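Hi Y.,

Following your request, here is the sequence exactly as I used it, all 204 residues.
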Amino acid sequence: MDTAVNWDEIRQIREHISKLGYVKAYKQGDVILEENTRIQSIPFVIRGSLKITQTDDDYRELLLYYLQPGESCIMSVLGGMHEEKSKIRAVAEEESEILFLPKEKIPELTRAFPQWLDYIFKLYHKRFTELLDVVNAVAFKKMDERLLDFLQKKSELSGNKTLTVTHEQIAIELGTARVVISRLLKQMEKENLVELGRNKITLL
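Below is the corresponding structure, written out as tokens. Let me know if you'd prefer a different format.
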């Protein structure tokens, strides 16, 4: 299900949000939102992409999903509406522009544009499906399958077959050890699934 807002078709909503909110630019790796911090504004991706992760009690990070242009983080929307602290961490996957809507403006937007609720419900459905995929992957898939899925998703997101990423970064996002990722990548290279370089991985 496509949840990205078509700004051309819903130009009024975009203009309204722009008046109520503000835009900030981020470099790759910049943190947009930390876990356990008070949610003051709801982020909407205008350009670039965000990586949404969560950390367990042992400080192991797990990738939940990515946000692309036209999308927002439903967990931030719900957390902001209910005065809850953030349960996720949002990081710029690349150079990005984010439009922030102050949480107190959500009721005004809902009253002015009923289609806003339809967008939120679609977004909730997509994020819920992605989180189920994460749970199923952790519970039922082998690490080599999860690794290949991860590389393919990252490639689709960037539009590039060659990924600039370290084994350590992959291990952190998949919640495993670097040596495990290195071993699996070498096996994948033998099977002609990938080509390995210095901090680069090319999908074949």
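The domain at 142-203 is CATH 1.10.10.10 (Arc Repressor Mutant, subunit A).

Thanks again,
Q.
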